[in-house]
Amino acid sequence: MESLRIDNTGKLIVSGMQQANGILEISGAKNSVLPIMAACILTDEKIILRNVPDISDVNTMIEILESSGKTVNRVKDTLYIEKSEKINSEIPYEPVRKMRASFNVYGPLTVINKISKVALPGGCSLGARPVNFHIDGLMKLGIESKIEHGFVYGKIKPIEKSEVHISLDFPSVGATEHILTTATLIDGVKTIINNCAMEPEIDDLANFLNKMGANIEGIGTSKIIIHGVKKLHGIDYKVIPDRIEAGTFIIMGALIGKNLTIKNINAEHLESLFSKLDEMNIEYNLKGNEVKISSSLNKKLNATIIDTAPYPGFPTDLQSQMMVLCSLIDGRTTIKENIFSNRLSIIDELNRMGANIKAENNNLAIVDGVRFLSGAPVQATDLRSSAALLLAALVAEGETIINNVDHIFRGYEKIEEKLKNVGIKIEYYE
Ligand code: EPZ
Questions:
Q1: Domain check: are 168 and 268 in the same one?
Q2: Using one digit for the tens of pLDDT, what is the confidence trace for 109-145?
Q3: 296 and 180, same structural domain?
Q4: Angle of helix 173-183 relative to helix 132-140, nearest 10 degrees?
Q5: Which atom of ligand 1 is nearest to the CA of 34?
């Protein structure tokens, strides 16, 4: 656990042209376990969470739950979350600064304590990330928010209406999760969220809440209905596999795989990726919850067009990794980032490695394929760009030094060990 520190400027030294051969197992989903942990505030009873990845974002959420008055014990990939003392309604700045998802405790804390004070999450390298949809939606549930000195002060008052309609301007993942979780305990009120996000992690959260005694309908659709209840109880729950970790390693397999087997995936959650790989003529063998893949770089592959979109569209969290693959495919690929205003910063780093990518209007990457990449010192700016730079380094000629790489520990469990098991050597230096 000690090595999992962020805000540190660790670096990875990677020799290129390695081959990944063997079995790689996918861990539980970061973007599912974080909102589920935030929802644990809604009950005093014991919650057992299984398949929880050992990553620094989970540690940050543990810190937040403990500062709110919970005790959290971890045994391997299982968390035991219990109430230790009165739930404290204030969450300090430090953990929220480290991780935006921590803001999702705001609604549950306010419902449980009637008042709350939570730090406002700042921006991040992906561009402006306001929480206006969260605040506006919670307001309709009776939560008045006052923003002062970088904190949001919440106060809940009973609402007269028995039915509340919330329509999101954009299917925001975080806002959907936050409103959905909070609405479960607005007793006797029917909340309808329109144009909500449909990511599999939201289904997992809703299934978790329903198992706790919530009454949620429309799971997996763009219209979720929540019938508020009085109380939620403790449960034992297993989190879904991480589709973004799986997608990252599948793309690694297309680059440097040699009969690489990736186990414990949910193929349905990765349909947009598999259909892109089919279009590009990249071979893989999918059977049940595992996929076998080898490098296709020596084959005739097709350039393509990628537009990131809310689920079931192509995930923005796999956009940078796909850019690495497309940078080595003959022809012109365009990649349009439609979710975040500033998620193409990796372009300069890949061009330092010999790629030929141009950025247009901050959200369009024009990728002209080159025959190979070459190792170079590069800089990571966020979780997924650090993973993408690792893929580029593994396929490049020569050595690459990835600076500011600690982001990677936020979302990839035991990455050094997992890669070592498939014959890949990377060295981490603090
Ligand atoms: C979640 O972030 C994920 N994080 C992100 O994964 C993922 O990239 C993103 O969804 C989109 O799929 C977690 O689940 C912890 P959004 P979130 O609210 O909830 C704007 C990773 O690498 N917006 O769907 O923050 C916002 O600025 C991370 O694992 C508002 O304008 O994403 C963005 O442009 C990175 N106002 C867009 O909506 C709001 O109130 C989508 O954001 C909320 C969002």
A1: no
A2: 999 999 999 998 865 678 888 999 999 999 999 999 9
A3: no
A4: 20
A5: 15
pLDDT one-digit tens code per residue, 24-43? 999 999 999 999 999 999 99
Q: Is 317 known to sit in a ligand binding site?
A: yes
Output the CA 362–ligand 1 centroid distance in Å.
18
CA–CA gap between residue 67 and residue 389 (Å, rounded): 35
- Asked if residue 80 lies in contact with residue 72, where contact means CB atoms within 8 angstroms, the answer is yes
Ligand 1 centroid, distance to 340 Cα (angstroms): 8
One-character DSSP codes across 146-163? EEETTEEEEEE---S-SE
Which atom of ligand 1 is least distant from the CA of 310? 12
Q: What is the mean pLDDT of each run of 10 residues along the chain (430 residues)?
A: 50 96 98 98 96 97 94 97 81 86 96 94 79 98 96 95 97 98 98 98 98 98 98 98 98 98 98 98 98 96 98 98 98 98 96 97 95 97 97 98 95 97 92
The boundaries of the domain holding residue 310 are 2-22+242-429
Does 246 lie in the same domain as 160? no
Rg of the chain (C-alpha set): 22
Judge if the beta carbon of residue 184 lies within 6 A of ligand 1: no
How many angstroms separate the alpha carbon of residue 103 from the centre of ligand 1? Answer: 12
